[in-house]
Design goal:
The chain has 261 residues and is mainly α. It has helices at residues 3-15, 45-62, 70-87, 130-145, 148-160, 181-197, 203-219, 227-242; strands spanning 97-101, 109-111, 116-120. α3 (70-87) crosses α4, α4 (130-145) crosses α6 (181-197) and α4 (130-145) crosses α7 (203-219).
Length: 261
């Protein structure tokens, strides 16, 4: 893969929350999608919720997001309705609070402790359906619901002997790094189940991923599609067959403020 193509692929991976390493999970690890996840917890739900809220405030202060303008509030409120519909079906009973950063150049999202989820504005430009927005939010919910965020907290506590009760010992951006190919794939896999439970189409993952393949082809027609993306498409196609979701194709147009529908 050429350097320009690699740079584009990296940007696309961020937009669909694909690992920065650029490698999809090997087929030998596919069985890990079906195994129980056991996660060490060093904080109660209440402690994680408080830490996540403090880190979300930290992000907003550092990025100059306060006070919010009316459009940002309306978009955040719309995304919150999607998170509410998904959160009803999550295992953990957390607030599932959306924090929207309108920066158009940031095409991603990430999960903070305690159900707090940051969505950057740039990723919304790639979406045409509410189901695709739900897919991104579901992926982030699963980082929390599958215990990956709690595990990251436990690792830092063990290494650095920090306190969960002291947000000044933590930074919001340490939760934005990839969890590795296998865990990122798992969040797509479990996120698709969450989508279906909430009445969304699992094809949202497929269409969103395919849009990035098309974009890469436009910019670099001589280069093959990024393998990390095509592997993700293969995974969701397989999951749709596995759970007999072939008929779940109906989607809802995205209804962001200022757009039709």
């Amino acid at each position: 893969m050429t350097r320009p193509t690699t740079m584009l692929a990296t940007a696309l991976f961020a937009a669909v929350l694909i690992p920065w390493s650029g490698h999809a999970a090997p087929r030998s690890h596919r069985s890990s999608l079906h195994t129980p996840r056991i996660t060490p917890h060093v904080a109660t739900d209440s402690e994680e919720i408080a830490l996540g809220a403090a880190l979300a405030d930290q992000l907003k202060q550092q990025r100059g997001l306060l006070p919010q303008n009316e459009e940002t509030r309306r978009i955040e409120a719309y995304l919150q309705t999607i998170a509410d519909s998904l959160g009803k079906h999550a295992k953990r009973k957390l607030p599932w609070r959306i924090h929207y950063d309108p920066h158009a150049g940031l095409k991603s999202g990430f999960a903070l402790p305690g159900g707090h989820i940051v969505i950057w504005g740039g990723i919304l430009a790639y979406m045409s359906t509410e189901d695709e927005a739900a897919a991104i939010i579901a992926h982030e919910i699963m980082h929390i619901d599958d215990g990956q965020v709690s595990e990251r907290i436990a690792q830092k506590v063990a290494r650095q002997h920090v306190s969960v009760a002291d947000p000044s010992q933590w930074t919001w951006n340490e939760f934005g790094a990839s969890y590795g190919a296998v865990k990122e794939n798992l969040c797509d896999y479990d996120g698709a189940k969450l989508l279906v439970k909430a009445g969304y189409s699992p094809y949202a993952y497929k269409t969103l991923l395919e849009s990035f393949v098309v974009l890469a082809k436009v910019h670099f027609p001589a280069s093959p599609p990024p393998k990390a993306i095509t592997d993700r498409i293969t995974q969701i196609e397989s999951e749709i067959r596995e759970f007999h979701w072939e008929a779940l194709t109906k989607t809802t147009p995205i209804a962001l403020p200022g757009t039709a529908g």
